[in-house]
Design goal:
The chain is an alpha+beta fold. The protein has one domain: Cytochrome P450 (Cytochrome p450, Orthogonal Bundle). It is built from 18 helices and eleven strands. The strands form three sheets. A six-stranded mixed beta sheet has the order 1-2-3-9-6-4. Strand 7 and strand 8 form a beta hairpin. The longest helix has 31 residues. The chain starts with 7 loop residues before the first strand and ends in a 7-residue tail after the last strand. 43% of the residues are buried.
């Protein structure tokens, strides 16, 4: 249970997520915190309790109906960054009948068949980027995020969406700006405006030029006599972009950084003791791409480990804390261990809001990571920057750069 204290103000830059989680855990299992702009929420530091809350029918994802502070959103421009996450009407922010309706319309576009159909596209994009890297001098410092981890999922998501080449730079801009929890009110307003311009333009383009892509499929999606409205189309595409691009970038970056800072773990992979699938699951647990996901809301008072969360209060899904919970993952939960016995993690959520794009993210990682390490056996961190800078976000857990020396490429 929580120790009585004034709310802890979370760092909007996410500069030390492990340290912040440790401080919260020391205060208790259910802790009152503040998000940027002074937004009060509850944070949960135990895996089992977070899962219990997420699955509790008395907890909703709908802010307009259940968050007591929702009427203040339009009057609080400093909450603009948060409204980008919770104000859109899509699968992420729907519950109950509305969520079932939207999932019935969207889920058929995310079949196993579509994910498998993306494999040759992912392999082609990966090979092209690897070939580009081989042309660089072996001793040159390369930012892996810029040269590989960011463009690979971006090109995949653009292929999936059917985005024409001239519109792709805007996809990259929105994907980066959307996650910035340190954004000013003016910056958040610009991001919102560009979202509300870009996605309708993409939808209009695909109506004129339909193709075998996700955007066209969602435009044409029907369930009985129902279809997605234009606003729902826009917000659904935004949610899928957020789930399908930046999180995959960070999964690739974080896994590479973890392996290069744990050479004994990398050796076990190279010697075939551990599969890449196991490596990816450990990376998802240890460095989940989403550290804290906003928000859920108590529809009535609920008791969590002896703490009463009042009706109308907001709850943060603290996935990083759950991934490092010693009750779930052992006393060495803070240690990266690719041979760790399998255990449930919450990196992709749980229940009806489990990430619909999880199979695609795993597929991209299991193609991109071995391809990189196989082609560059001497891959190493650049000594000038042993600790890379982090993305300015308390939501997304990622690196803003990953400077490496590639070394000499192996022969194909």
């Amino acid at each position: 249970m929580a120790i009585s204290s004034s709310p802890i103000v979370l760092d909007p830059y996410g500069s030390d997520v492990p340290g912040e989680v440790s401080r919260l855990r020391a205060l208790g299992t259910v802790v009152k915190v503040e998000l940027p702009g002074g937004v009060p929420v509850w944070a949960i530091t135990r895996h089992d309790l977070l899962k219990q809350v997420i699955l509790d029918p008395r907890v909703s994802k709908d802010p307009q109906r259940y968050w007591s502070l929702w009427p203040q959103v339009d009057e609080r421009p400093e909450w603009g960054w948060l409204n980008l996450w919770i104000g859109m009407r899509n699968l992420v922010n729907a519950s109950g009948m509305e969520h079932r309706r939207l999932r019935n319309l969207v889920a058929p576009s995310f079949t196993g068949r579509r994910t498998l159909a993306m494999r040759p596209i992912i392999e082609r994009i990966t090979a092209e980027l690897i070939d580009d890297l081989t042309r660089l001098p072996a001793d040159q410092v390369v930012d892996l995020r810029v040269a590989y981890a960011h463009p690979m999922p971006l090109r995949v998501i653009c292929e999936l969406f059917g985005v024409p080449d001239d519109m792709r730079p805007e996809v990259a801009w929105i994907s980066t700006a959307f996650i910035d929890s340190a954004a000013t009110a003016e910056e958040a307003a610009e991001t919102s405006a560009r979202i509300r311009t870009f996605f309708p333009a993409l939808i209009a383009h695909k109506r004129e030029h339909p193709g075998d892509d996700l955007t066209t499929e969602l435009i044409n999606a029907r369930y009985e006599d129902d279809r997605l409205s234009d606003d729902e189309l826009r917000d659904t595409l935004l949610a899928l972009l957020g789930a399908g691009h930046e999180t995959t970038v960070d999964l690739i970056d974080s896994t590479v950084h973890a392996l290069l800072t744990h050479p004994e773990q990398l050796r076990r992979i190279r010697e075939g003791e551990v599969t890449w699938e196991a490596v990816i699951e450990e990376a998802l647990r240890w460095a989940p791409p989403v550290a804290n996901f906003p928000l859920r809301y108590a529809t009535e008072p609920i008791d969590v480990d002896g703490v009463r969360i009042p009706a109308g209060d907001a709850i943060l899904a603290t996935y990083f804390a759950a991934g490092h919970d010693p009750h779930q993952h052992g006393e060495d939960a803070d240690r990266f261990d690719v041979a760790r016995p399998p255990a449930e993690h919450l990196a992709f959520g749980v229940g009806v809001h489990h990430c619909i794009g999880a199979p695609l993210a795993r597929l991209e990682a299991v193609i991109a990571l071995p391809a990189l390490f196989d082609r560059f056996p001497d891959l190493a961190l650049a000594q000038e920057t042993p600790t890379p800078n982090r993305l300015p976000s308390l939501v997304i857990n990622g690196l803003s750069e990953l400077p490496l020396r590639l070394g000499h490429p192996s022969k194909k």
